[in-house]
Amino acid sequence: MSVHSPHDHDHAHDHHDAHGHHHPTPPASFSRAFALGIGLNLAFVAIEAFYGWQINSLALLADAGHNLSDVAGLLLAWVAALAGRLQPNVRHTYGWRRASILAAFANAVLLLVAMGSLALEALQRLGTPEATQGWTIITVAAMGIVVNTATALLFLRGREHDLNVRGAFLHMAADALVSLGVVIGGALYLWQGWAWLDPVISLGIAVVIVVGSWGLLRQSLHLLFDGVPPHIDLPALHAWLAARPGVARVDDLHVWAMSTTQVALTAHLVMPAGHAGDDFLRQTSEALHERFRIDHTTLQVSTAPLMPACHDFHEGKGH
């Protein structure tokens, strides 16, 4: 039989298995914001990279790389939002949600490689600093402040209700500050004529990007190998399921990310008094969604254990 609630779809299969889905979808209006933000930043990257190459400014080239990461981040967020709308089929029963995790991993690897090359070049240039054009640096970086601020404002309205949109907003707001740092560096060069300032600023920008990218690399790699999403407290989740009415034991509990925004859970509930009914399954699925942000729940119920316990979540051990 099949029952429905405003937030999910629960299916009970001959009173032994429950299957729940939650499909959060960002507002369609943000597709235009993503497209406009990507277009603005791509145009700015081209301008900044051109002038950085023309005046031999590593600071501008580094900031261009940073803004290219913005494009990748916005594109990733947009793809993740669109992928959530694709319907599963007989070949891909979860659809293409995991593509967002793979894209995040590829984005982090490319950024780390690019910033490593930039850091090596900056270190070499520190030994033989070269003159650059301060006013050009200030003008182009100031354009970056305008572009990044304008892009952030595109996502201002939705940042409180959608984590994907909030991530895009925070990323762009932070990048406006990075461009401000380049402006300050250009002004100091004009004031003091410090030729070494350009490679130093480049190193600083590279460090900022590497620190941010390293977290993205670790998290995306963790999720690619079906790691428990960072917002899930697995011992607390296990304890909550075990405390449900009629549940004597929780076995075979698995939680993993289907995408960068959606989480799945499967578990075997031992209920000696027998299955508690469809309302129990529906309420458990809804509570998992509200308490732990789990979108896809599959529960198996039996009156006796079907297998030996394989996890000790309180001791942090498993096999």
Which descriptors would you attach to this protein?
single chain; 57% helix; 319 residues; alpha+beta; two-stranded antiparallel ribbon; disordered N terminus; six-stranded mixed sheet
Quantity of strands, as a count: 8
Strand order of the largest sheet: 1-2-3-6-5-4
Mean of residue pLDDT?
77
- Distance from first to last alpha carbon: 35 Å
Radius of gyration: 25 Å
Uncertain runs: 1-16, 23-28
- Based on helices, strands and strand pairing, what is the structural class? alpha+beta
What's the total helix number?
A: 8
Draw up the topology in text.
Layout: E1 2-4, E2 9-13, E3 17-21, H1 30-54, H2 58-83, H3 99-127, H4 134-154, H5 163-192, H6 197-224, H7 234-242, E4 249-257, E5 263-270, H8 278-292, E6 296-302, E7 311-312, E8 317-318
Parallel strand pairs: 5-6
Antiparallel strand pairs: 1-2, 2-3, 3-6, 4-5, 7-8
